Each structure stands twice: as C-alpha cells, then as structure tokens.
Amino acid sequence: MTVAGASLNVVAALGDHARRVPLRRALSLPTNDGGFTHFNYQQMAEASDACAWGLRAAGIERGTKTALMVKPGPDLFTLLFGLFKVGAVPVVVDPGMGLSRMLRGYQAVGVEAFIGIPVAQLVRLAKPAALSSVATVVTVGQRLGWGGTTLTELMEHGRSRGVFPLATTTSDDPLLISFTTGSTGPPKPAVMTHGGVAAMLRHITGLLQPDDGDVTLVTMPVMAIMDLLVGCSAVLAPMDASKPGDVDAAVITSTINAFGCRHMFASPALLQRLVEHGAPLPSLRSVVSGGAPVSSTLVAALRAQLGPDARLETTYGATEALPISSIEASEILAETSSLTARGHGTCIGRPMPGLDLRLAAVVDGPIARWADTHEVAAGDVGEIVIRGDIVSPRYHDAPAANTLHKIEGDWHRTGDLGFVDDVGRLWFAGRKSHRVLTATGPLLSVQVEGIFNAHPDVARSALVGVGSVGEQQLLPVVCIELRHPSNGAPVHQEQVRRELRDLARQHALTAGVDTFLFHPSFPVDLRHNAKIKREELAAWARLVLQPRPLSTSVVALRAIPIIGWVLVLVGLLLPLTPLWRVLWGIDVFFSVVVHGLQLLVALPVAKRAGQPAALAVFMTFLLGVTWWKPLQLALDGGLDTPLDTPGKNTVQP
Fold it and tell me: Which of 48, 172, 190, 506 could form a disulfide with 392 if both were Cys (CB 3.0 to 4.6 A apart)?
C-alpha cells in the first residue's frame, strides 16, 4: 500500500538497476534490416541522465506537460525517462486515434512543451491553434527552420554532467497523462501518479512472477517502461503496435524463441494470430492478455502452444486502473467457459489484493456521493466501481468527465456492468453504454454474445439496438462475423441464421432475439484491435434494416460524374478540337485523379458500412463524393440513406 503524499519517484528503480546490474541487457529494439539493437541498464541510465540535463536547460522541468510525437525506438525511451527524471509529465496519446483526436487531446491538456520528429513539427506548424500553449520545442532529427532545439543538442549539453538528481516527487504527483482509447466516447486524459504506477508494478509483477533479469516481449511500447522498472530485459516486438491484429505471427514467434522470452503481455487480437500460426512457444512461462474479453476457444488453443508449467492469465482493467482483476486459463476451461455459453457473461477473475470493489445500481447520470445510490444485492448486475492505489485519481482539467466517472471518496466508475458470484469471482456483463433497452427489459451485450459465440461457425458476435432510444423500444440485433474454415469451404449464412435462431430460443435471456445480420469484418478499437465498436455496428444495422430512398437532389447530383465519364469515353473514341481536348483533359483529371484521392475517405466509410473494398473503389471512381458522402451521412444518422442493397444481410422473415 502506497502512503498518500509520501515521497516517491518511481523512476528511481532504473538507477537502482543500473548500479546493481549495469551490463544487464535492458532493451532490445528492432532495426530496419530485420535485426535488433541492444542497450544495457548503464547505457539507459546514462542516456536518460544526459537527456534530463538537456531538457531542464531547455526549460522543461517539474510539472511541464509535454507532448511526445516520436516513433518507438531508442530516442523515445531516452526522452521518456529523461522527462520522468526532471519531473515533467509526458502526455501519451495513442497515434492510432487519428491526428485530429490527438491534437484535440493535446489542446485539452494544454501541453507546454512539444517534442517530435520533423513530420510532427510540420503538423504543429499547420495546426497552431491546437498547440498554442506550447512554449518549448524539441526536434528529434533535423531542425528545418522552425526554431527550438534538437535532441542531439540536448544530449550534448548533458553528456558530461553525470548523474541527474531526480526531481523530488510524491506518490500523489502525476507521472504521466494517458488518454483512454475513446472506444465508447471521447478520449479522456487520465492522470497516472507515481504511487499509482508503483502499485501497478506490484500487481503486474505478481501476475508475471518474473525472476531477476527475465526477458519479456513488449507488444505495446509504453509497457516497456514497466519492464525496465521491474528489472527485466525488454524486447520490443517487430510490429506496428497500432495494428496488433495484423502482425506477422511467424516473426513474433521467431522473436520469442530467439530471445527466449519468458513473459508477454498482448491483446487478444495478437494472440489470435499466434494461435492461427500454431507454432509452439516453449520459452514462455507467463502470458497476460488484456484489452478485451478473451474467448475460451482462444484460451484453449493458446494454452496448447505453451509449455505445461506456463501460466495464461486474462486480465480486466482500464487506462484508469490496470489490472483490476485476473483469472488463469485452467479455471476458465474447467469452470467458467460453460457458464459463458449459457449467458452468464465473461468471468474476469478475482479483484487484485487491496482493491475495493463495489457494484452500484445502474444509472446513466453522475453519482456525487454513495448516499446518492446503493449497492446491488449479491449476485445482481451493477456498475463496477473501484477504489485503490492503482486507480487514477482524476482526469486532467476535465470537469465533466470527473463528474460522470468519479464518486466522492476516491471511487472510480468503470462504466462496465457485472456481478460477483458466490465464490468471489467478478463477471463482466458488458459496457453500460452498450446495453440494449428493449420492450421486455435491458439486454447486456457480453451476456447475450456469449451464447451465440458458442456456435462453431461464429468468430464473434455483437449485440446492438436499432430504433428510438427515447421510446426504449429498441429492436435487439445480433451482428455476426463468421469464422472462415481452414479448408476454404463456404459457410451458408441462411443455415447459420436458422441455427442461431434455434440457439436463441433455448435460453430465456435471448428468447426475444430473432434478427441476425452478417458483417464481413467488425470495426474494432485502435489500441488493442479487439474491442468491438458496437456504435458503428449499430449505425450499419440501421442502414441495413431501415433503408430510405436517396433524396432527389443526390440522385440529380449523381448525373454529373456519370456525364463526366461519358465525356471521357467520347474523347477516347472520337477526335476532338483543341478546345474540347483541353476540356476533356480537365474532365479526366476530375474523374480519375480527384475521385481517386477521395478513396482516402471513401474506403474507411465503406468499411464502416460493411461494403467490400472493390465495390468502394468502383463506386468512388464512378460517382465520387455523391456515392460515399450519403453513405457517411446515413452511418452518422443523417437523412440521406443510400439505395445500395444490403445483399445477403437482408433480414429474412
């Protein structure tokens, strides 16, 4: 237990390891030629000391909120530990969130320093309003006339200064500000304190149970900080950390085996890739999964690839608190998976030691004090509310978020629903914002989906509601992503639909569920590639179930690009006068180049709508903005809904 307000700088552990085991390999980073570059603890400590001296000379000091737009690599970790040593507060925004969200996050926090590669500096110059609070600029790479200093200059300034005296901080002082994924709303800036991170380290160490100097595989770059503070040797996986679902499993497997990695934290999407690859992973002693519920099918398959003494833990947590609870694979396979298939939800294990956990009555609005609500009865579903060392105490300068997610007395509302069984295990029933309010009562996403995920042809399912929330008469719709057989045999949707309806009628929970739609590939969150974006699926389901004709104006506007293509064809077949040749060239530019550039927007819109990429390319070149813009408006709840037929997704009576 960390004493509130006690003197603590969690980063001191890096210096302790550097003095105790200076030549131990601390960090291994992939290089462009397929190899790795290595740094020992002494090198990490000395580099971050030099960086800290330079940062302080540049005006970055205790409390300075600092934006970091630097690619994973040696410079990133040197800067992170340098910032921690001076007591500055890095602001961590997942680049997968998109540029506009990232800049809005920096603007909301009011970052005072900006450290970035040249491309990031150009973004800063192009969006001055979003970063108007920045007073100090550092370029990682070549500075091209935009002022400030460079990382090279900072390092030169501090290289001969020796050990940097750590900033005097307490357990309550912020170590960093980390944004939530924004998978169910706007990203929120969670304040992570020195005491909170120290508590996380204790719990993560308890899960991994590393021996001194064990090698860990890092699939999320920021998690390497934890490994280095624990004293492990961290190997950064050769992958795009924003796309864990697209990793090359053979490369990940060979990295694990080449380094003899003992521990790994990974999202279910990455673990699924390893399972599909199927190669043994004998060196791993513990694997921890987090970010989204893990299916028992995945747990069983991955367990078979690990050694007999390896532990496979699935954890539950959030940006604001990690980990909250954990359960080992053997308990899932022996006890809880069968209950999941009967609609209990996903068992996420027992709460971490020292964590207070309550289940509050489900309300959508703020809860200022416990007196304003009540705990649900034993075994009933309520909102999971927690208090403890690992919990972020607040969101930075976000009063609305604090009002909605915090309760007097340091309690944090997770926004998740669940219940505790008679042996003290916590079960996850779904997000509060994902419950579907039907005429016969609320349906909870994860409980319902567990029933249909048990079907052998279902890769995953997602419960959404279509209709008017105000009337609380939503039609429950289950979106289905089919599993593709390894032998390439086709899966017959109508047969699966009939079987799912039969399955629904076997359970009281789903007896009223009768509508199933097949989606080619579910939209997922950007950080873990595993959390299903049910809001986007709900918009898609509405598009399929409640189509409305295009407005007359859109139909008329579509004549323009079609006429353009007719003129292109005429120019290819017939001789033209010089004037018409010029007009023909302009027409070709708009029909080909301008329509082609629109694919940058059209393809993501088509993916949200469940449309094949090939169709999106054809329709965008043919109709341009008059095709994808009405589709985008329909998905966002606008009035113009395309006439494009949903094909096999049409609901059958």
Answer: 190
> Which CATH class, in words, describes the domain spanning 435-545?
alpha beta
- Rg for the chain, CA atoms, rounded: 27
Other beta carbons within 10 Å of 191: 21
The SS3 assignment for 519 reads: coil
CB 620 within 8 A of CB 599: yes
Q: Which pLDDT score, from 0 to 100, does residue 644 have?
A: 41
Examine the pLDDT at 29 and tell me if it is beyond 70.
yes
Answer yes or no: are the C-beta atoms of 509 and 448 closer than 8 Å. yes
Label residues 356-382 b or e (16+ Cβ within 10 Å = b).
ebbbbebeeeebeeeeebeebeeeebb
Tens-place pLDDT, residues 54-93: 999 999 999 999 999 999 999 999 999 999 999 999 998 8
Tallying the residues shown for the chain, one arrives at 653
CB within 8 A of 420, min separation 6: which ones?
357, 359, 378, 379, 426, 427
Q: Given pLDDT bands bounded at 50, 70 and 90, which one contains residue 487?
A: low
Tokens 């790994």 sit on residue: 264
Cα 269–Cα 270–Cα 275 angle in degrees, nearest 5: 95
pLDDT of 652 reads 34
Which superfamily does 243-429 belong to? ANL, N-terminal domain (3.40.50.12780)
What values do phi and psi take at 343, rounded to 5?
95, 15
What is the identity of the amino acid at 456? P
- Whether 1-193 shares its CATH topology with 435-545 is answered no
Question: What average pLDDT does range 494-511 have in this prediction?
Answer: 96
Copy the structure tokens of residue 82. Answer: 């340098």
Peptide bond before residue 323 is cis, with ω within 30 degrees of 0: yes
Give the start-to-end residue ranges of the domains of the chain: 1-193, 243-429, 435-545, 552-649
CB 397 within 8 A of CB 108: yes
CATH topology of domain 1-193: Rossmann fold (3.40.50)
Confidence band for 433, pLDDT divided at 50, 70 and 90: very high
With tokens 């008059």, the residue in question is: 626
Pairing mode of beta strands 149-150, 136-139 = parallel
Cα(362)–Cα(374) distance, integer angstroms = 9
Closest CA to 227 of 255, 264, 191, 190: 264
Q: E strands, 247-390, where?
A: 263-266, 286-289, 311-318, 321-328, 346-351, 356-360, 382-387
Report CA-CA distances (Å) from 569 to 358, 564, 572, 614: 69, 9, 5, 22
Residue 584 has pLDDT above 90, yes or no: yes
**Do residues 131 and 91 touch, judged by C-beta distance below 8 A?**
no
- The Cα 168–Cα 149 span in angstroms is 26
Provide the pLDDT confidence category of residue 180 given band limits of 50, 70 and 90.
confident
Structure token digits, residue 558: 């579509």
Which pair of tokens denotes residue 382?
Answer: 């309520």
